Amino acid sequence: MNSLTHSLSVMALLLIFSSAKAQWKVQQSGVQSHLNAVDFIDSNLGLAVGDDGVVLRTTNGGQAWEMLDSLGVAPLNDVHWVNNSTAWATGKYGGLYVTYNKGDSWTIKSVGSFNSDLLSMSSVNDQVLWVTGTLGAIYYSIDGGDSWENKGRTSVEGYRNVQFLNDSTGFIVGFNGLIQKTIDTGRSWLREDGYNMNVFDVFFLSDSKGWLCGDDSLVLYTTDAGKTWVKGYIPTTESLQSIRFTDDLTGWVVGANGTIFKSKDGGKTWHASQTNLTSDHILSTDFEGGFGWAVGSNGLILKYTQPNSGIIPTETVSVSCRVYPNPVVETARIEFSGYDRVREIRLYNSGGQEMAPNLITQKSQTSFELDATNLTSGIYNVVARTSMDMVTRKIILIKN
Question: How far is CA 205 from CA 183, 225, 270, 275, in A?
Answer without folding.
Answer: 17, 11, 18, 27
